[in-house]
Amino acid sequence: MPKKSVLVIDESDLFRDYFKTRLGRAGLIVEVAINGLDGIAKMRNNPPDLIIMDYHLSRKSCTEVLEEKARNPNTAAIPVILTAQKIDKSRLLELVRFNIRKVFMKPIKMDSFFQTLEEITGTRVDVDTTPCIIEAHVNDNIVFIEIARGINREKADLLQFKIRELLELYGIQKPRILLMLADMELSFIDGPNLDFLLSVISASGAKPRHIKILSRSSFLRDFVAGRPEFAELEVVSSLDYALEGLVAEATRAADAPEDKASIITDRILTPQRTSGGMESLTLNFDTEKTRIAIDSDKARELGNGLEIAVVDDDFVIQELLKTTFGSIQATVTCFSNGRTFLDAVRSRVFDLVFLDLRMPEVDGFGVLAELHAQDLEMPIIVLSAVTQREAVVKAFQSGVKSYLIKPLKPDQILVKTLEILKANF
After folding, report:
1. CATH number of this structure's domain 133-278, picked from the four choices 3.30.750.24, 3.40.50.620, 3.30.457.10, 3.40.50.720
2. d(Cα 240, Cα 245) in Å, to the nearest integer?
3. CATH fold match for the domains 133-278 and 296-421
4. What is the spatial distance between Cα 107 and Cα 422, in angstroms, rounded to a whole number?
5. DSSP characters for 209-228?
6. N- or C-end of the chain: fewer Cβ atoms within 10 A?
7. Where are the domains of the chain?
């Protein structure tokens, strides 16, 4: 029986690479196209059994690709799986007639995606169903990766592309990685998936001394020590110690040693003074320069239809965020205290929330507690002048996606928004 073929049309090289690798392992023949025009050419020359296509394409739009597909009798009947960051329902209804089987919003829920792919192609895709939650974000050139519940091979596979995505977004040349498995009990059953996870981390481009694993598991410690390829990775049980180790090289040249609190707050969380004034708050190490490049077209594409809430009693911050997101046509609604925001979310959902911790009536922690009590999930970025570690840790434990220290710069705000909302994985 001949292998089924798939054409992936997507402008993200990471997305294309992932599907070429993952679907190839499942036994499918995978061809990729870098834009709409390339997709039309490859679809016409070698009609596939399935097309996986992003809605946001250049050279030729998604609609133009689908119209060309419908005009050609050799391609008209090919089923399509559509992916998108965001799409209006009215536009989606216009595309139904083009044999679109399913629409998946990015970041994609891969278990559902593979189930749909299996139904369309008849090709079995074995999927690891181990319960697992993985969160990854960047702060001061450190990639923080937190894993809870278990280690899932599919999500570990996706993680390597997520890491690449973050490193490219922030222009990080010398990454440092903190892998946090602090509350996870591991045993020999987890061995194969743990081996795969550590291989992904080791292949990230970070030097072994720049990778710390936070865990209290004796099994994990013995597992790492017993494998030569991972022996240089350090397993630690203290978050303070892990962070101190990751920033140690940047502080070795200092005349006087700094304590752990200084390293964690001053180096990672707060702005620094330079000869040119105050730096932005997601800081690079003294020995490195971080290039944050914002793709203006992607930013405007993301902003179209984006609903943002700013919960802050500082008028200057409100105006800064209005101006920043107005440049990409996003809608910003401001609330001067937590109570008015909580009243609003009873009947309205926001794509992203910027939240101050210190406010009248109901403060930021009160807002986080109420959202959790009402089971309301929205991506939240804390904007605060509060730099104490206890406050930062409490905020992250409450489910915030990022913690930015005032004062702020527009580029930083946009790149953090891109990281959280524009993720392919």
Report:
1. 3.30.750.24
2. 9
3. no
4. 8
5. GGEEEE---HHHHHHHHT-T
6. N
7. 5-121, 133-278, 296-421
Alpha-carbon distance values, 312 to 194, 349, 409, 415 (Å)? 42, 18, 16, 20
Cα 370 from Cα 107, distance rounded (Å):
26
> In sequence order, which residues have a C-beta less than 8 Å from that of residue 102 and are 6 or more positions away?
81, 82, 116
Residues 6+ apart with CB under 8 A from 72: 43, 44
The CATH fold of domain 296-421: Rossmann fold (3.40.50)
Q: Do 384 and 391 contact (CB within 8 A), yes or no?
A: yes
Give the pair of three-digit tokens for residue 70. Answer: 């419908």
Q: Topology of 5-121 in CATH? A: Rossmann fold (3.40.50)
Alpha-carbon 280 to chain mean position: 21
Q: Which two tokens stand for residue 4?
A: 């089924």
Task: Write out the chain's pLDDT in tens, 425 residues.
Answer: 688 999 999 998 888 999 999 999 999 999 999 999 999 999 999 999 999 999 989 899 999 999 999 999 999 999 999 998 877 777 778 887 888 999 998 878 888 899 999 999 999 988 888 888 888 888 767 898 989 889 999 889 989 988 998 898 888 888 999 999 867 889 999 999 999 999 999 999 999 999 999 998 999 999 999 999 998 999 998 877 787 777 664 444 343 444 444 433 333 333 333 333 322 222 222 222 333 445 556 666 666 778 999 999 988 889 999 988 888 888 999 999 999 999 999 888 898 999 998 888 898 899 999 988 888 888 888 887 765 556 666 776 666 767 777 667 787 788 778 777 766 66
Alpha-carbon distance of 398 to 91, in angstroms, equals: 36
Exposed e or buried b per residue across 249-272, where buried means at least 16 C-beta atoms within 10 angstroms of its C-beta: bbbeeeeeeeeeeebbebbbbbbe
